[in-house]
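[Meeting: bench + compute handoff]

Bench side (C.D.) handed over the final construct sequence. Compute side (W.E.) agreed to return the predicted structure before the next meeting so the bench team could plan truncations. Sequence as handed over:
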Amino acid sequence: MAQRTLDGTGVTPRSGAGTVVRYDPTITLPDPDGDPDAEREHFVDAVETATAALDAERDATAERVGEAEAEVFEAHIQFLQDPTIETAVEASIEKGLPAANAVDDAFGEHIAQFEKMDGRMAARADDLRDVRDRLLRLLTDGDRVNLAALPAGSVVLAKRLTPSDTAQLDPETVAGFATATGGRTSHAAIFARSLALPAVVGLGDELNDIADGAEVVVDGDSGEVLVGPYEDERAA
């Protein structure tokens, strides 16, 4: 018996054992005061840089994961060019908000709308978060955690993983991942199946109680995460 078992939704018919690495991409926003002209230029530059990065990630994902999975980055480029979001950002900048805060507000409204929906439409919330966070890192000079360079045997735990997060994971080194939110149709789940990564989603807030560095088993078939498994469970 495991010392503790958490129940979620398994999304891959695979299991993996390893050491917890907690992923928290929290971004700190600047003080709410900015020069409109400078912030507007900052926003335009960030959109251009993000678009170029998405083009590159689309091509890399198509080669490493698959053409179908890479299409999500086409949608992200469209979100970057959405006139509704752009207008909202520019209106907030004109009122004196820094570009980062304006982006956070504009995307936040749309994310909240999609979160109220079901199935694949709800997955759009993660797409928007992905685009928003990409822009926020550029606007705040924030560093992106390199999930492609995790130690061998890592099990990634996170509240959620966006498409660009999951696309970084290397199945040769990552033993699996588990998230507090998400379902079988989420992008994280789809990428996990394409990469043949053990994964469990929708575990809820209990996931926060697992310490960084703990030993766990991720059972993507049963939907269980075993915390502090005994040796026979790890072997099985």
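W.E. noted at the follow-up: Helices lie at 36-64, 67-80, 83-94, 99-115, 119-140, 163-168, 187-195, 231-235. C.D. will use this when planning the next construct.
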